[in-house]
Write a structure and sequence with these properties.
The structure holds two protein chains of two kinds. Chain A is built from twelve helices and two strands, in the order ααααββαααααααα. By secondary structure, chain A is an all-alpha fold. Chain B has helices spanning about 1-25, 30-35, 55-70, 90-105, 115-130, 170-185, 200-210, 230-240, 255-265, 280-285, 305-320, 325-345, 350-360, and strands spanning about 40-45, 80-85, 110, 135, 160-165, 190-195, 215-225, 245-250, 270-275, 295, 365-370, 370-375, 380-385, 385-390, 395-405. Chain B starts with a helix and ends with a strand. The chains are: A mainly alpha, B alpha/beta. Chains A and B meet through helix 1, helix 10 and helix 11 of A and strand 7, helix 8, helix 9 and helix 10 of B.
């Protein structure tokens, strides 16, 4: 049971790390960026490729992977969102547009083989791969009956630090005030002299960089990098987490991530593995019936 | 007299040549009919999606066989045209692609699909459209001969047009368990089974039905979803029961994740699995954690018989990498279809008739392949040697045992 509690915390950290960037965009733009899961995967895939296929040190690969993910934030803005915003398209159009970009990114990676035009990016096609042993030091500590892997333990302080830094930036810095102004009322923010488009771009860059970092941490901790890790493993749960925490709430995303992880694992232990997913989402449904705005969801200006 | 003798000699030579030609092609008329023609085969494979771990290798093996056959003059002079379609590992897409290949592309026969999940959608379709289809990687239950079997309609009527050159899990898993039980006499096991695809759940049922025969007590069956972000909680459940063996029936990279997780948790027992283990991709991903993990395979790279060595050499030359079981089965699949087409006296004018002739010829295939000497059973399943292999901890495999077909 003790080990399962540790497992629950680790899973919750992964959900939270993914959901922080996810919820940031919703908090500012009121749009679900469904390309976030693809950026999550891209960060992991590119970092893996830089290490294994291009011989880069892990730290350099990490920085480049996060930078490329941040750049994808600009692609999302300039390709998927800004043209629609200019045409005053409804939010659902932006959602569909980001789904389209996600499909393109996943397809590009899964087509990446040694003989394809994407070979510089990825050569393993649809395969699942892991960083070679020793790429990242990953000592395993056995304390009593507990087993702790350094790569998983590291996710916890990183997630909490990100939540605190983002919270600080949003609340106490000029940029944060600008972002909150855009979240509150873009038109009023523009009339006050804010460059709203720039703020939105900045939001997507930060969100995507966080998504890329989350993907890298996922790949290192779970030894699983494939074109599908975002879509299959975390997207739906990430969405559940930000709904549970309150759409747009960064602390809500973190707390929601841990809650979902704990509920899933406790269900597995008490009711068996067959019930795990079902009970977790039934609990989520029940909570939303009782509190539709989620745990931390309040009025718009208080969300971030 | 001399002239007479010369005429007789020429006549005899022509007769012998004609007989030789007839013997090789299955009929002088058919040889003429084949020359300059194209024989269209289709393949529905999972190049992307969950089956993308296996499909590309099947495709590469099949394409290599096509290239070799065409380069050596084709099938009695007819060139093979192989069209490969990616079903994205989705059953509905697989069926739609198969229908297109049968009804629009007018292919003579099909290979595939990669996954058993897709097989249950595609094979009944091919059967109803009377088109021969050769499964080159599907290993689940009810692939052959009862392709129309469903839980609601458990018909056992044999399908006439569905064949398989991949080793079914109903043979492979029991052989693997039997072999390991004889070697190590394990007494307890835990089964980790992916519950959301046919291949994995079929494999789980077979493990449950088999272990008792070898006095292995199954302590627990732990189903999981392939979409679980982290399998560690499931693996923890298994490891905390301290079994001698963890049985894994799942696809893609999941077996490797389970092995790594279990070793990190201190598990020192044995991993036994199914067809999902049998690619270097999984062995490589598992790395040292997978060392010793055993499965029954339809093929082993180190086999020294000529048809395998030639295949391995040609594959390495073509793709600059080692083939795996799926490449060997894809390659063998085309060789089987080509052999049948060669003997089928195809008309090239009556597609339905030609499909039926090909089906009949497939039933009598008896050729050397990288899988070994190959024949179909009376139920269109594979009849071949089973190779018990184990992961070597470095991305490859080594051979433990070989089991001859009964």
């Amino acid at each position: 049971m003790d080990q399962q509690i540790v497992n629950a915390i680790f899973i919750g950290s992964i959900y939270a790390l993914f959901a922080v960037g996810y919820t940031l965009v919703f908090g500012i733009l009121d749009i679900l960026n469904l390309a976030h899961s693809a950026v999550f995967m891209l960060g992991a895939a590119l970092t893996y490729s830089l290490v294994v296929n291009h011989g880069q040190p892990f730290a350099v690969a990490c920085i480049l992977g996060i930078a490329a993910s941040a750049f994808m934030g600009l692609v999302i803005e300039y390709v998927c969102l800004r043209p629609l915003r200019r045409r005053q398209a409804p939010p659902i159009a932006a959602l569909i547009s980001t789904i389209g970009l996600a499909l393109v990114i996943v397809a590009a990676i899964e087509q990446g083989t040694a003989s394809s035009i994407f070979s510089w990016l990825w050569v393993d096609g649809a395969n699942s791969v892991a960083f070679p042993a020793g790429t990242v030091p990953n000592p395993i500590w056995h304390i009593g009956d507990l087993t702790l892997e350094a790569s998983k333990v590291a996710i916890i302080p990183i997630t909490i630090a990100l939540m605190l830094v983002l919270g600080y930036v949003m609340r106490y810095t000029q940029v944060g005030r600008g972002l909150r102004a855009v979240a509150e009322n873009p038109r009023a923010a523009r009339l006050m002299g804010l460059d709203v488009d720039r703020m939105i771009s900045l939001t997507l860059v930060i969100s995507s960089a966080l998504g890329g970092l989350a993907g890298i941490m996922f790949g290192v901790a779970l030894g699983d990098i494939s074109p599908y890790i975002g879509r299959d493993n975390v997207e739906v749960r990430g969405l559940a987490v930000i709904v549970l925490g309150g759409m747009g709430s960064i602390p809500g995303a973190v707390i929601g991530g841990y809650l979902l992880g704990v509920v899933e694992v406790l269900t597995l232990v008490t009711l068996g593995s067959g019930a795990s997913g079902g009970v977790a989402f039934a609990a989520l449904f029940l909570l939303l019936v009782l509190r539709p705005q989620g745990l931390f969801g309040t009025r718009l200006r208080e969300r971030i | 007299m001399k002239r007479m003798r010369f005429v007789c000699w020429v006549a005899a030579t022509l007769v012998i040549a004609a007989c030789g030609s007839s013997g090789n092609t299955g009929g002088g008329n058919s040889a003429n009919a084949y020359a300059g023609k194209t024989i269209k085969f289709g393949a529905i494979l999972s190049i992307t999606g969950a089956g993308g771990v296996y499909g590309p290798q099947s495709r590469d093996g099949a394409m290599l066989a096509v290239k070799q056959i065409n380069a050596s003059g084709g099938i009695n002079g007819a060139m093979i045209d192989l069209e490969v379609q990616d079903d994205a590992s989705l059953a509905a897409t697989s069926a739609q692609k198969a229908q297109t290949l049968i009804q629009s592309s007018l292919d003579l026969a099909l290979l595939g699909p990669t996954l058993s999940n897709s097989g249950v959608a595609v094979h009944p379709l091919a059967e109803s459209l009377k088109t021969p289809i050769l499964a080159v990687s599907t290993t689940g239950i009810h692939i052959v001969p009862d392709c129309n079997w469903t839980a609601a309609n458990p018909t056992t009527t044999p399908c006439k047009y569905v064949f398989r050159d991949s080793l079914g899990e109903q043979t492979a898993i029991p052989d693997n368990i039997k072999s390991y039980a004889a070697d190590a006499h394990p007494s307890t096991g835990v089964l980790l089974v992916a519950q959301d695809d046919k291949f994995s759940s079929d494999g789980g049922k077979i493990v449950q039905d088999t272990v008792g025969q070898y006095n292995i007590q199954l302590l627990k069956t732990i189903p999981f979803s392939k979409a679980a972000a982290d399998l560690t909680p499931y693996v923890t459940e298994a490891v905390q029961l301290h079994p001698d063996v963890i049985f894994i029936t799942s696809l893609g990279g999941i077996p490797a994740k389970i092995m790594t997780g279990a070793r990190n948790l201190g598990f020192q027992g044995q991993f036994l699995g199914g067809n999902g283990f049998n690619t270097a991709t999984v062995s490589k991903q598992a790395g040292a954690a997978g060392k010793g993990a055993r499965s029954a395979s339809a093929w082993y790279i180190g086999n020294t018989f000529a048809s395998n060595q030639d295949f391995v050499t040609a594959y390495k030359s073509e793709y600059s990498k080692d083939p795996d079981q799926f490449a060997a089965q894809g390659y063998a699949g085309i060789k089987i279809l080509a052999d049948a087409a060669k003997r089928a006296n195809l008309t090239f004018t009556d597609l339905a008739g030609d499909r039926d002739k090909l089906r009949a010829a497939m039933e009598t295939v008896n050729i050397q392949t990288p899988l070994g000497p190959f024949q179909f059973t009376s139920t269109h399943d594979v009849k071949q040697t089973v190779w018990i292999i184990e992961m070597d901890g470095a991305g490859g495999f080594k051979l433990d045992h070989q089991i001859q077909p009964s």
